[in-house]
Automatic annotation (TrEMBL):
Source domain of life: Bacteria
Provenance organism: Butyrivibrio proteoclasticus (strain ATCC 51982 / DSM 14932 / B316) (Clostridium proteoclasticum)
Gene3D superfamilies for this protein: 2.170.220.10
Chain intervals with Basic and acidic residues compositional bias: 122-135
Region (Disordered) location: 115-135
UniProt protein name: Flagellar operon protein TIGR03826
Length: 135
């Protein structure tokens, strides 16, 4: 058992991973999310503060949904999101498609690199060392 305090209501609950939020709160947040999502469809020109006030959620929570790419905004929305890397306007998430693509490439490269390359030079050194011992 891994007991933690829920980040939303403060009650102790059995933590199983992800966000430290208890099940009833997760359900409540999910209901809020559906409400906000529908609200944005009905009110595409609403700003962040207005959405938060009308739906009784925090702007922080809305921003988190944006980062999780769960909320999308149309181009006429006053909520203008910028790619955190290059500053291009985006509709959801933290980065534009281009930056996300190059980041995925960088990740693949660092994952692919280490193993095969390191082994060869080590073998050569061993051989050289053995020859030196033989003579
Ligand atoms: Zn809770
Ligand atoms: Zn970008």
């Amino acid at each position: 058992m891994n007991l933690r305090n829920c980040a939303r209501c403060g009650k102790m609950f059995n933590y199983i991973g992800g966000q430290p939020i208890c099940d009833p709160c997760k359900k409540a947040i999910e209901e809020d999310f559906q409400k906000v999502k529908q609200y944005i469809v009905d009110n595409p020109r609403a700003g962040l503060k207005q959405i938060a006030e009308d739906n009784q959620v925090t702007t922080k929570q809305i921003q988190q949904w944006i980062r999780e790419e769960r909320l999308m905004f149309t181009s006429d929305s006053p909520i203008q999101l910028q790619c955190e890397n290059c500053g291009q306007l985006i509709q959801t998430g933290r980065f534009c498609a281009k930056c996300k693509g190059s980041m995925a490439n960088n990740l693949n490269q660092t994952f692919a690199k280490p193993q095969p390359q390191i082994q060869q030079p080590v073998k050569k050194e061993q051989k050289a060392g053995m020859r030196f011992l033989d003579t």
